[in-house]
Backbone:
């Protein structure tokens, strides 16, 4: 039967093709006026599934996908019922007993439609958006730490007060903030956060500590309070630097520190810089060699700071006055420390170390690498460049001098040959002249 | 009063001739006189604190040394020598008379060139002043270079650091006035010393103008213990206008210097006053050695006894002599008598009070 029908159909279409007519369903139905079709779908994807499953579909990522990072920037579940109140809706209708009292005074309130409230919708949307945002505060670029992406270098404030001690003037900086894992018998790979922080009062007191916790806020709090329990006092030389050059080491991390004069600044690893700022050191140079793990750097640097010899110790061990000479004061001597008994000149041995830095470093000398000329120093092109440069090596100075003297590029020959000057300056002078004239006329 | 009027008329006379006070006679022989030099350097006062005050330097690396007591003392002594060097006074000379001589006139060379040629002897080791610099003019005349040309030639072949070919902008009227108002006297004088030779008219004009400004505004402290204080005192003494400086010295308890200034005034103006006695007292009271020792003790923190009274008995006795001497000057030569006498009396009162305290202190 079916086969027959099919065959009939084929024949029918072939017949239509021969007649060059293509019938559509609508033309067929149009002829049949009795059929009144109403297209409607009572079920849809959104109606079939509960909200739970719909949200799941949007917010979930497979475990494999999560590992590939697909969970980053994912939509977060929103409570769409938030802010919605029964009886209050788009059409601003007053329902006595639901959204309004039944009796107001002696009057019985009727159900009635109030004028529409345009702000209601916006409020709801705002409320929903506030739910989805992650709650990060926008930080000033100066407070974003070393890179802005991670927490390193960011300030997390003074440690929490203990009794009467409010840790006034203290600040804490995050040095390292990372995830750490360990394996548990029953839980498997367990993730926690680890923070390594330094705290200090910018005036000699500083301490560092690390802590672990599952929660980010907890780990920072734990670490900074722990650091506050481990404060060390580091004496400052003249209130701005270290007492002498020193070398310090922790594990394979080696640091060479140099004392620097005022105005030099902190030229060192960023972790060391944070420590210096918290301790109150303002001028110092440090070079890290070997392993560069920040925790080791911090430990090595603190060791070095604590092992410094004070002026008094050095003078006493040497049995001589320790005298400071500052070029800015015309090298007028200033005795910074004196021994109890000063030795005479004859008591000083011929091979005694008399250099302050060497005495402080226990006779060791820092091996300074020879400075090689840059790679291009012996190239053909560089020699050509130098030759070209020779002719104009003082041009800047002379230009500067002319500008200072005449306000433009001018020499003793300019009056005779006014056009023989750099084109730019001819234009500039013309422009300035025009401007001055314009100002004059406007003033008049 | 008559005297004062006369003084004003002389000042007016000066001002008509040149803009500022100038030296009529050659001051050099007086200035280089050893006694006067001694007076001037003593008036300057050597204040180590001021000479070695904080300055901007290219490299401010601090260095440390291990020193014995002896070495420390030597260092301090050396710094005192440096200070004395820093206080070496720029000479006070007569304004030069620049009249270049013609050496020869070769008419045959007339119009050999459109320009004049300058020939400079660039022999190494010669003093600039002894360097012969000659000019061949286009008309064939060979003559000594004028001072301006000489100065240019010196600067070309033997440049002095920071001396510029052109007139520095700070000496332009507008800027100069501003700096004077700001009280940047030392800066101006240092720049003038660098830019001009001491016998140039310009140098004399600038310095005298600065000195007069200082005198007018009583800003003597800004030049005290600098190399310019001596020439300034010399200028005032020469032009008989030391009263303001004297006033300042008495007010700031530089009595000894005031006495020396009066002596300088007497010497420069040929007043026959007895000054030998008072000068020997001055010379005795000034003890460089004790000052050096004091500074060393300060450095080593050995000055444990805090002095309650500034002056010793001897100093107080000397002060009385000084006061007497100053009084005699005020009586005879002073032009601002009432002011000076008032100041002197105030000083005397203070001095007596000090003496009483001293007496009580020693008795107690």
Residues:
């Amino acid at each position: 039967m079916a086969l027959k029908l099919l065959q009939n159909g084929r024949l029918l279409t072939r017949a239509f093709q021969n007649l060059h007519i293509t019938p559509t369903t609508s033309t067929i139905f149009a002829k049949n006026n009795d059929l009144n079709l109403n297209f409607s779908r009572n079920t849809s994807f959104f109606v079939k599934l509960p909200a739970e499953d719909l949200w799941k579909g949007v917010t979930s990522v497979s475990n494999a996908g999560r590992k590939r990072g697909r969970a980053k920037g994912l939509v977060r579940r929103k409570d769409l019922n938030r802010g919605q109140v029964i009886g209050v809706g788009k059409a601003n209708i007053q329902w006595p007993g639901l959204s309004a009292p039944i009796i107001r005074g002696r009057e019985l309130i009727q159900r009635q439609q109030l004028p529409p409230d345009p702000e209601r919708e916006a409020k709801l949307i705002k409320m929903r958006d506030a739910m989805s945002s992650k709650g990060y505060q926008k930080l000033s670029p100066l407070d974003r730490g070393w890179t802005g992406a991670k927490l390193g270098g960011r300030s997390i404030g003074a440690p929490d007060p203990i009794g009467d001690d409010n840790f006034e003037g203290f600040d804490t900086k995050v040095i390292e903030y990372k995830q750490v894992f360990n394996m548990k018998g029953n839980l498997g790979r367990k993730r926690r956060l680890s923070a390594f922080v330094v705290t200090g009062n910018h005036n000699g007191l500083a301490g560092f500590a690390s802590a672990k916790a599952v929660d980010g806020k907890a780990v920072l709090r734990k670490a900074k309070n722990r650091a506050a329990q481990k404060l060390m006092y580091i004496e400052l030389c003249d209130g701005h630097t270290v007492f002498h050059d020193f070398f310090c080491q922790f594990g394979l991390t080696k640091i060479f520190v140099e004392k620097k004069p005022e105005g030099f600044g902190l030229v060192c690893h960023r972790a060391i810089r944070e420590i210096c700022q918290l301790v109150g050191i303002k001028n110092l140079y440090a070079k890290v060699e070997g392993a560069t793990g920040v925790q080791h750097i911090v430990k090595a640097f603190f060791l070095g700071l604590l092992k410094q010899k004070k002026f008094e110790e050095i003078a006493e061990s040497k049995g001589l006055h320790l005298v400071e000479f500052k070029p800015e004061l015309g090298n007028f001597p200033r005795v910074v420390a004196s021994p109890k008994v000063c030795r005479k000149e004859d008591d000083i041995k011929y091979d005694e170390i008399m250099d302050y830095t060497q005495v402080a470093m226990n006779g060791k000398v820092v091996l300074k690498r020879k400075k090689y000329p840059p790679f291009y120093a012996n190239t053909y092109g560089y020699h050509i460049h130098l030759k070209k440069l020779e002719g104009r090596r003082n041009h800047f100075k002379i230009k500067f001098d002319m500008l200072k003297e005449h306000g433009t590029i001018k020499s003793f020959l300019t009056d005779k040959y006014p056009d023989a000057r750099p084109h730019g300056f001819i234009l500039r002078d013309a422009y300035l002249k025009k401007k001055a004239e314009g100002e004059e006329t406007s003033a008049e | 009063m008559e005297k004062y009027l006369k003084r004003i008329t002389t000042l007016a006379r000066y001002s008509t001739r040149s803009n500022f006070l100038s030296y009529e006679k050659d001051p050099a022989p007086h200035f280089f006189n050893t006694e006067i030099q001694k007076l001037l350097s003593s008036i300057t006062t050597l204040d180590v604190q001021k000479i070695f005050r904080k300055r901007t330097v290219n490299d401010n690396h601090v260095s440390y040394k291990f020193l014995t007591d002896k070495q420390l003392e030597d260092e301090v002594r050396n710094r005192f020598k440096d200070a004395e060097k820093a206080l070496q006074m720029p000479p006070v000379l007569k304004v030069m008379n620049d009249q270049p001589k013609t050496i020869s006139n070769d008419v045959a060379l007339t119009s050999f060139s459109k320009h004049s040629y300058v020939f400079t002897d660039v022999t190494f080791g010669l003093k600039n002043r002894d360097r012969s610099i000659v000019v061949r003019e286009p008309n064939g005349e060979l003559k000594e270079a004028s001072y301006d040309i000489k100065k240019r030639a010196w600067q070309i072949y033997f440049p002095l650091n920071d001396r510029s070919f052109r007139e520095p902008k700070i000496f332009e009227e507008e800027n100069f006035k501003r700096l004077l108002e700001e009280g940047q006297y030392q800066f101006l004088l240092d720049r003038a010393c660098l830019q001009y030779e001491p016998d140039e008219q310009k140098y004399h004009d600038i310095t005298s103008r600065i000195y007069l400004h200082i005198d007018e505004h009583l800003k003597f402290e800004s030049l005290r213990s600098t190399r310019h204080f001596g020439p300034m005192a010399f200028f005032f003494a020469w032009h008989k206008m030391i009263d303001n400086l004297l006033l300042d010295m008495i007010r700031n308890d530089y009595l000894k210097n005031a006495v020396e200034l009066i002596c300088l005034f007497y010497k420069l103006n040929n007043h026959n006053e007895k000054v030998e006695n008072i000068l020997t007292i001055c010379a005795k009271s000034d003890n460089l050695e004790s000052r050096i020792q004091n500074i060393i003790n300060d450095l080593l923190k050995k000055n444990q006894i805090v002095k309650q009274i500034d002056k010793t008995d001897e100093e107080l006795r000397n002060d009385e002599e000084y006061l007497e001497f100053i009084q005699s000057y005020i009586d005879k030569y002073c032009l601002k008598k009432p002011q000076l006498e008032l100041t002197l009396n105030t000083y005397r009162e203070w001095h007596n009070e000090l003496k009483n305290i001293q007496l009580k202190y020693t008795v107690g």
The two ends of chain A are 109 Å apart (CA to CA).
